[in-house]
Amino acid sequence: MNFVVCCKRVPETIARIKIAADGRSIDWQGVQPIISPYDELALECALRLKEKGGGQVVALSVDPDGQETLLRNKALPLGADKAVLVKGGPNFDGYAVARIIAETLKTVPFDVCFFGKQAIDDDGGCVAAMVAEMLGLPRVNTCVGLEIDGRTAKCRRQIEGGEELIDAPLPCIIGVQKGINGVHEARFPGIKGIMAAKSKPFEVRPAPAVEATMEVVKMELPPDRPPGRIVGQGKDAVKELVRILREEAKVL
Amino acid sequence: MDTLTVLEVRDGKVRRPCLEALSEARRLAQKSGGQASALLVGDAVRAHAPEAAKHGAATVYVAEDPRFRLYAPEGYARAVVEAQKKSGAGAVFFAATAQGRDLSATVGAMLGVGVATECTGVSIEGGRVLARRPVYAGKVTATVRFRKAPAVLSLRANVFAADESPAAGAVVDAKPEVEDAALRTRVREVAATAQGKVELTEASIIVSGGRGLKGPENFVLRDNLAAVLGAAVGASRAVVDNGWRPHSEQVGQTGKTVSPNLYIAIGISGAIQHLAGMRTSKVIVAVNKDPDAPIFKVADYGIVGDVFEVVPALTEEFKRVLTH
């Protein structure tokens, strides 16, 4: 079974984001890059499937700045067998990124291609479904359960208040939600993994030229909330709080 | 600009976030000298056309197919593209529900355009659609512009008003030609996991609990308070990572982003990734024993105190005033 996991470089979740001088992007100064958490869970999910049933895991990253650190220092040490770095491409244009990935996947064979359910920078969450449509493949996004049964992926997809039970013939595209197959956390790379990573294949290619469909005009920090007030201490403050919520804030 | 809004029918009703999206699409169409239309897609959905008309759809496209009884992404997407072609809409709107997010991406791929997901503001300038949307889990607001038409957008729930503005609602058939083989993703059935519960992202009141509740057994305090208020329940990342609560309740950067009318945080200190996910709530209330907890920096009203003492008292007081 061949697995591909698409890994996106994003700022770590605890980062305080500052807007860059151009007013249309963020300032990476002092910000730690990570593999987007849902992508990392997808990698963990793929590694577990490989450990169970054999196969190969390829970590794929499209990086506008061509940075390879996360593939080298994270994806390969964690257990991916090979890395493919596609240099270039836009950000915040899911369609253009999906085109690049779909183009790349034509030469990277797979049975299941994993994405995180969304990257935690642009929070778009549309690339997986777009790639599936472009390649004419079935897909399951916000997938919380995945079992390979012969040539079918038996999936559970999270929706509001329930789950859709979906059969997707392989090859297919999966967008991973936290908790998929009980995966809540990725493993940590061990010394062995770090050493092994050095000799694993690492392929670099330029991004194919694609048409841009969207552009970021402006980025801004949300306005600070007006200062609030402490109504009081302990349970004596409860009556006053409820009165305020009803009579002043009028939210009840 | 003409607009098309895709409506989702669940439990015999058009879902509220879809009516919010239709209302906003209609306002935008009116402002720009266009007309709003809507699409109903499913097995037997025609009966909901008057509901769409009531919210401003001059035309209601209907795509009925027995194979569309459950969500069939490839089939539904073809129906949307069909209705877009028929209507000539310059912008296609979805609600940012599980289905809307998945379907809008597929439609974007078919129309050759990106999708603005979870928008909180939409405008038209020089014939191009601009969308405001929270990114980096709400730490940043981005304004994006479509370079191509039609624009494809999903709108965040609870942000836009769903108001009535009756229109003709002429029903037009828009069933697409779809071969069986094109329906690649097969939804076999829908299993309800939380029937009757209020969905977090659509709730108007949310009560969230954090590590201050000290253990999974104490979340009953949160649940009791939520029950009195008819609220949805949320949790911080810390308690989800500890396995006290399921990930479906997590509010914040790797969970859900919410903007209810009232957000009550109990025993949540307010880590940056949590604040990012709830800071657009209209009114925030925090109960925490630490007066320096970051949650108080975003809260409109706070009580400093022991959650085990304050929360039950709060539940009783709400019960008392709300039943009068």
Give the SSE layout.
The complex is a heterodimer of chains A (252) and B (324).
Chain A: E1 2-6, E2 9-11, E3 18-19, E4 26-27, E5 33-35, H1 37-53, E6 56-63, H2 69-78, E7 82-87, H3 94-105, E8 112-116, H4 127-135, E9 139-149, E10 152-159, E11 162-169, E12 172-176, H5 191-197, E13 202-206, E14 214-220, E15 229-233, H6 238-247
Parallel strand pairs in A: 1-6, 1-8, 6-7, 7-13, 8-12, 9-12
Antiparallel strand pairs in A: 2-5, 3-4, 9-10, 10-11
Chain B: E1 3-7, E2 9-10, E3 13-14, H1 16-31, E4 36-42, H2 49-54, E5 59-64, H3 73-87, E6 91-95, H4 98-111, E7 115-119, E8 121-125, E9 128-135, E10 140-146, E11 151-155, E12 170-173, E13 186-192, E14 205-209, H5 219-229, E15 232-235, H6 237-241, E16 262-266, H7 272-278, E17 283-288, H8 295-298, E18 301-304, H9 307-322
Parallel strand pairs in B: 1-4, 1-6, 4-5, 5-12, 6-11, 7-11, 14-15, 14-16, 16-17, 17-18
Antiparallel strand pairs in B: 2-3, 8-9, 9-10
Helix pairs in contact in B: 3-4, 5-9
